Amino acid sequence: MSETTPRIVIVGGGFGGLAAAKALKSAQARVTLIDRTNHHLFQPLLYQVATSVLSPGQIATPIRELLRKQQNTTVVLGEVAGVDKDKRIVWVNNADRRCVPLTYDFLILATGVTHSYFGRNEFAEFAPGLKSLADAVAVRNKILQAFEQAEAEEDPARHRDLLTFVLVGAGPTGVEMAGALAVLIRRTLKSEFRRINPESARVILLDMAPRVLGSFSEGLSWAAKKRLEKLGVEVRLGHGADKVDADGVIVAGNRIFSKTVIWTAGVTPSPAGKWLNVGTDRAGRVRVQQDLTVPGHPEIFVIGDTASLDQDGEALPGVAQVAIQQGRYTGKLIRRRLCGKPAPRPFRYFDKGSMAVVGKNFAVLQSRQVHLSGYLAWLAWAGVHLEFLGAASLRVSVLVQWVWTYFTGQRGSRLIVNHRGAEPAKPPIEQAPAA
Ligand SMILES: Cc1cc2nc3c(=O)[nH]c(=O)nc-3n(C[C@H](O)[C@H](O)[C@H](O)COP(=O)(O)OP(=O)(O)OC[C@H]3O[C@@H](n4cnc5c(N)ncnc54)[C@H](O)[C@@H]3O)c2cc1C
Question: By alpha-carbon position, which residue is closest to atom 41 of ligand 1?
Answer without folding.
Answer: 80
